[in-house]
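hi! just following up on the protien thing from before. the input was this:
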Amino acid sequence: MRHLIALFTLRPEYECLAMRIDAQTATEKAAVRRPASIPPTTARPLSPATLSVGSSVLRLHTTLGNRTVQKIMRSPVLRARFGIGKPLDLAAKQVVAGRAQGYAQAAGAGNDRYAAAQRPIRNCRPGRLMPDQASLARRPAGAADQPEASVQRLTEDDLIKGKFSGQFEYPDRVFFDFGSDGVDESQQKRIANYFADKPDQSIPVTLTGLASEEGNASYNLGLAARRASEVKKYILKIRPKAVIRPKPPRVESGVIDYRFVRAVVLNERTDGGGGGGAGQPAKCDLESLKKLQGKALELVVAAKSNVGKANFEPTIRSLFGDPAPKDAITANLAALHAKLGKILEAGAYECAAVDTPVCSSGALAFANRKTNKISYCPASPSVPQKDEREQVNTMIHETLHITPSVSTNDYAYASDPLISQLRQAEALHNTDSYVILIRDLANSIAPPQARFEGTTSGFSDQERDQIREAIGWAMSSVNGAHYQVAVLYEAVHVTRSNGTWPESHSSYIDLYKRLAPLFGLTRLTGTGRPRDEDKWKLASVHDKLKSLVVAVNPNIRKYDIDRDDSVPFVAFDFRPMFATAKIAPRFLPLSLDERIRKVLLEVVTQGQLTPNYVSAIVEIRDFMGIKWPV
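and the predicted 3d structure came back as:
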């Protein structure tokens, strides 16, 4: 049975499998000349209780059903093909295009019919369960980059499951679980709500079925079509006269949030509207960007004029420490003003595509230090639009990144409580410290400055600040890693599409090589490039880091720091709206670097992730050139 289970560690085309099993069973029943007998198996019909032992068996049972498994057990040919019982040898396994494929080889087969057990099951469309010998000879584009032995297939842990969490922002999308085409009750309500304010009973509706990119492309395309078909059935159930016009289904490649594209879009427009947007060309709304530039310049001019005023000194000290470094701040604001005036000159900016992973994750723009330009994300219904104030803040933020004399990093965002714990040397080069300061000095509405809250028991104020500093740096590092993995995913996606690493992301080859041994990515040698499986794994890493960001989100949590001699170093108890940090006395004598790593390990453990995520976060921090204070 374990050999049968092994064949389903990755999702195959189950419909195809069931069809082949039924066909084989029918062939055996109709055969006149029976093959030589094979010693009977001791297998009995399997009960649901037996099949439910272990998650892999449960998936097999729930997908194929008990009756289909019984057919396999009763058929000598099928037992031979799937490695159940004797005489078989499944020791030989090959890796083809990143997937492990098992081949049954019959020993002492009675005749030609049983000799067929030596061959894998033939192609079955759409998709295929196992490749034939001809498919073994075909290699996908770029397969020559690395020997097949270096490819590691996706594991169960790499799969991104569950539905998209931000559904309320996209009323024109029907979302699905991983690998599912079923419209559950929650999505039926969403469809009903979509039509609630549309009285026309014969309303025309277009449906675009989508699927995420990981796995077999032809299977995913079929899955996208089935999703649209199921949504159509339900719409006709509640609106029998509706005019349904299905659009061609598609697999969304390059969108890092796989849950978002496991969907059917209602009335998707040709310009990418109506919940779509992926695959649209890069473009910028230059007129709107110039308006934002003008407002940003006004704020910086007002801030420069107020740096020296006494009534603003407490604001400066709260962000940059005491004594207030007014001269350094004045010089940096002057450099920022000069750079802001040039960022929209011809050739000084770039337009990003809607489905650029950084844009699709909700960013308004991002700085490209390689080209010393800002890439602007176009407006898209797939991304909730920010108000003008936040767009101006973003323009200031990204311009600071490419202002040479300032050279800011994202040590802490405005939402990170670390921003209130930064030492002066780091604060003078922290981007959001200037964004908050500029808004305050210009008498404008500043982004809320996050601070640590909560009680402290068993520690002095100085010790409390040391603990908060370590927690703050750890949380900020998780945020930074989450963002950088999205950029790396984009680089790998473009590399797979164009054949070479994009010049704008060439530095990310180094980050890829750092993360490859941690997450089983293809090792790059010479002119090698990643595979599609590597892109899928990076999407999974990004998803898990996102879960950590949500778990330790400082905007909605306060940290009660308690002394506890029973914990090794540090332990967190995350609960809604607050968290408790239990700290052992021996935590404090550690260096800041060691304290941060201890906090990261605890956060990763709380998130049910493996310790290699701590190593990845540290590697990403080093790649970004961010050094924790000594």
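The mean pLDDT is 76.
The radius of gyration is 29 Å.
cheers
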